[in-house]
User: Fold SDR family oxidoreductase from Paenibacillus zeisoli.
Amino acid sequence: MSIDLAGKTALITGASGELGRVMARTLAQSGADIIIHYFSNLAKAESVRQEVEQLGRRAFVISADISSLDSVLQMRDTLQSEFKLPEIVIANAVSQYSWTTVLEQDPADYLDQFNSTVLQAVHLSKAFVPHMIQQQGGRIVAINTESSMQNFPTQSAYVAGKRGMDGVYRVLAKEIGEHQITVNQVAPGWTISERDRNNNTEHSESYEQSVPLKRRGTDQEIANVVAFLASDLASFITGAYVPVSGGNVMPSI
Assistant:
């Protein structure tokens, strides 16, 4: 048994980022063609395109502001006319900001997180779910976070956005399930990325001691779960929030 995405096309938002590029590579290795979304870093997006094409898959690089419905709809129209609409949508992009306490956090940061998480979910759904309904099938996989269950100090804007996003995707899973479209979330822990490997920052003893598996996860381990949920192997899983955190958070029943 293997993950087979042959004949599928996957859109990955934020595909030029640390985790996004590994997901792009992993889905391409599983046979999918890749739509590489980026916001501003064209050079990194082109680097991901080269990786995907070296794996023998087609790639298309496109920029869009995922917080703007008009921009996302324009991305859809461009894909429809110049490449292909995706059967798989990976919602990975998120805006970055400095974390501080609720009393110190700029209210604009909360709006920014809402726009890049909750509204990204809405915009991607409006743009790409109708095609999935026509095809009577599709996969949506969103990147959440273990922080949504931890609620630690200084995480408030990030947690607020991701928990709001969680609500949208759980409702969406119920609304479109009859069309054999699955909607799931992957919630990474504090993940080792290429940046960590380059900077020798892979380890944090205090964090690792809190994790049952006593280590940080890797970007590849996150991408593996994304690929599984995007595949037919996960055809009867929908509405799930799946921590990939070494047991650091455990949803209850």
